[in-house]
Amino acid sequence: xxxxxxxxxxxxxxxxxxxxxxxxxxxxxxxxxxxxxxxxxxxxxxxxxxxxxxxxxxxxxxxxxxxxxxxxxxxxxxxxxxxxxxxxxxxxxxxxxxxxxxxxxxxxxxxxxxxxxxxxxxxxxxxxxxxxxxxxxxxxxxxxxxxxxxxxxxxxxxxxxxxxxxxxxxxxxxxxxxxxxxxxxxxxxxxxxxxxxxxxxxxxxxxxxxxxxxxxxxxxxxxxxxxxxxxxxxxxxxxxxxxxxxxxxxxxxxxxxxxxxxxxxxxxxxxxxxxxxxxxxxxxxxxxxxxxxxxxxxxxxxxxxxxxxxxxxx
Amino acid sequence: xxxxxxxxxxxxxxxxxxxxxxxxxxxxxxxxxxxxxxxxxxxxxxxxxxxxxxxxxxxxxxxxxxxxxxxxxxxxxxxxxxxxxxxxxxxxxxxxxxxxxxxxxxxxxxxxxxxxxxxxxxxxxxxxxxxxxxxxxxxxxxxxxxxxxxxxxxxxxxxxxxxxxxxxxxxxxxxxxxxxxxxxxxxxxxxxxxxxxxxxxxxxxxxxxxxxxxxxxxxxxxxxxxxxxxxxxxxxxxxxxxxxxxxxxxxxxxxxxxxxxxxxxxx
Lengths: 314, 267
Description:
heterodimer, A: 314 residues, alpha/beta, Rossmann fold, Alpha-Beta Plaits, six-stranded mixed beta sheet, 11 helices, 14 strands, elongated, B: 267 residues, mainly alpha, globular
């Protein structure tokens, strides 16, 4: 079934004085998916989120979120989105439930509705025990989950999360990841910005890599890794003198890469495990016993570095 | 699951919900407002009894009765700090952005701030009025005049509310409040709050006499029937008008500026 995208931005431009924050920024997010917006600091991720959540006006370009134009139908958009910004935008002095009731009433719920919705969310996101405690006593992960709850009060069609795990310890990060997966499983489209590659790899159905206000590449994590190049086999030997024998015995499409200091030979292996088996046989026939032999797939880190540095030089 | 609808709630309702947020703060952390009240009472006692014996009021009269309306006025003026701090803290923490991403009216945030700060200032003023009566301050006029005096004080607080909202939205950093605190003290002290301008060097006296704060202090002194420390007729005669006009001018300037600063958050 083909559905119109939950979020579509076309050619957004935004300048702050001499700084170009968004430079022809375009993005499509399929309904119910988690889309990761990945980029280094200053790439324009937050500006993109702020533009798509009606917080700032762009200089040119159009965007539609949840079926409405961001610029001309901002109120309709606001009724259908949730925003979890970089700060923890909840009231520290109030308790968790008090926060959710306040935001619920601001969203137009009656007091009774707001109280019952707050209870549902606190229960669903495991905050019931801390419901009445002031938020200032919450852990980082709990605060962030409360922040996310406050964005879910009206069950938004699109949820924006701007670096949701920045500053959290690993436990808090896992809690938030679980939360995000659940929200997407319930059918909400999630746009997530992050500078952590493993976060995008773990959570996102598709990823857009951003550099200097522009999306340089979009794809699934697997596609992005494939685009970077094939798998490689790394052979480590105990004696550097064996390195030439290794290169002579194995089959390779391109010239194997020798690192004498590390005593390794790196061989391109487009056929993956088949190439690994062939290499094992070849080494065995040549009577070479490697110290270590691994099949290495490109990591998202490498994709990220390749894309962002490639752009920098072009 | 709760059935969710989005009835369009009015700006007033939203403003009231945000005012209630402040009232809940008092309930959660009563120490803060109580500390604020104690600070006002401390200033009152300190200036009243420490300087009271040394300061002569031109035209005669008891210093405490001269001082008290000035203290009320100063307290209203210093309210600008708490307004600014509250606005800039919400902006810095992203709470303002959350409000802006929600389907609420753009004036709701200002209305909420207005409700919260006016409520706390009226409470603060009430405590000072009672505290003043306890240490010998008197209202020698009728109830009607006294009420007008109280309204003039609240009117000044309303005017500086917009200064605070404008500053808080413009310098979205709680640390900037420190700078404003440094600048607001001379505004408060270079007035007739503590000392009559007639006792100052001529140039300073002129500054103090024309300070908007002095207008409110003089007008409330008249309305409460307290000594004004002024022996020239026209300054006495024009005080009520000036005490009405100055806050009006401040409001007419800073309310639109606040609205503009809020809109400019979109830039």
